[in-house]
Design a protein that fits this description.
The chain has a 5-stranded parallel beta sheet, with helices on both faces. Strands 6-7 form a two-stranded parallel sheet. The protein contains 10 helices and 7 strands. With 258 residues, the protein is an alpha/beta fold. Helix 3 (79-89) packs parallel to helix 4 (100-116). It folds into 2 domains: 21-180, P-loop containing nucleotide triphosphate hydrolases (Rossmann fold, 3-Layer(aba) Sandwich); 184-257, Helicase, Ruva Protein, domain 3. The chain has helices at 21-35, 51-64, 79-89, 100-116, 133-146, 169-174, 186-199, 209-219, 223-240, 247-257; strands spanning 40-45, 68-72, 121-125, 153-160, 175-180, 206-207, 244-245. GO terms for molecular function: ATP hydrolysis activity.
Length: 258
């Protein structure tokens, strides 16, 4: 049963944002880490659990509140790339030709200046499982010398849970707090489905409790997969002139996504 030549044509960004209890709990714990001036906090969860979306929403709120935020979404392979990105986000006076030692100097100067101004500093690094050894060394230096209660800076690291055991143990040992972003349960999925239906009233998408359970079972409660299932359900029902999503529909879509 095929609904589109490529499921990627129906992207999750079409879905509404949903603050699940798991999302709210993770944000509350991140806020707690900042209040304690923790040196390092680790956010972990399965691929598709919503870590990147959470960090994007949360860092946006921090900036609007006056915090200094550097959000590095794709850790660079090379020392210069990573340091340059960090320096730019900290509003340091640097250029593409600035050398790594000069970048470090400018980064330290900015961090010191922000500390003197008593401005909270948050450095977020997403997909930390992808970093190289030399980038991990940079994060270690940053955490040991420039994060913690004396500097009011906190380093937030996001890593996929399946890579947590193989992640750089030197960084994990510095972590004051580990935050697990949990998957959605059936109640979360039902509430998200209501928000989804409101965002797409033309589709008149209907899921009963059996269909919700099927979505929960086949998605493992991962928001990214749940969004894909609902997107493809909307497409399938439009083609069949039906409004009801059945467990059989969900199973067919699961096979489409595999």
């Amino acid at each position: 049963m095929r609904y589109a030549s490529s499921p990627q044509l129906i992207v999750a960004s079409m879905s509404p944002f949903f603050e699940s209890p798991a999302y709210q709990e993770a944000v509350a714990r991140l806020e707690y880490a900042l209040q304690r001036h923790d040196r390092v906090a680790v956010l972990t969860g399965a691929v598709g659990s919503g870590k990147t979306t959470l960090l994007e929403k949360w860092t946006g709120q921090l900036r609007r509140g006056g915090a200094i935020v550097a959000h590095l979404r794709t850790p660079g392979t090379f020392e210069h790339d990573f340091l340059w990105d960090l320096a730019i986000q900290l509003k340091a006076n640097v250029g593409l030709a600035t050398t790594p030692p000069e970048l470090w100097f400018e980064i330290r100067e900015q961090l010191t200046a922000f500390t003197l101004e008593q401005r909270p500093i948050v450095v977020v690094v997403d997909h930390v499982e992808e970093i190289s050894r030399e980038t991990a060394d940079i994060l270690l230096t940053l955490a040991r010398l420039h994060c913690g209660s004396e500097t009011e800076a906190t380093l937030i690291l996001s890593v996929d849970s399946q890579h947590l055991q193989t992640f750089d143990t030197r960084l994990l040992k510095l972590a004051d707090l580990k935050i697990e972003l949990e998957a959605w349960n059936s109640d979360d999925i039902a509430k998200f489905t209501e928000a989804y239906q409101a965002a797409h009233p033309e589709a008149q998408l209907t899921l009963d409790s059996a269909a919700i359970e099927a979505v929960s079972r086949y998605s493992d409660g991962l928001p990214r997969v749940i969004s894909q299932i609902l997107d493809l359900s909307r497409l399938a029902l439009a083609a069949s002139e039906s409004t009801s999503v059945t467990p059989e529909t969900v199973e067919a879509i699961r096979e489409e996504l595999l």
